[in-house]
Amino acid sequence: MKNEVLSFYRMVWDFLTVYLPKQRGASPNTAKSYKEALNILLIM
Known about the structure:
Layout: H1 2-23, H2 28-43
Helix pairs in contact: 1-2
């Protein structure tokens, strides 16, 4: 289970830090917004 959680975290981190800004050209505000939305989801 722990490996699955770490794997998921790594995929999300790569999506937010590599895919969005470098491959999709998304603005830093977009990545920030996605991070905040995920944090809110995890709190609930």
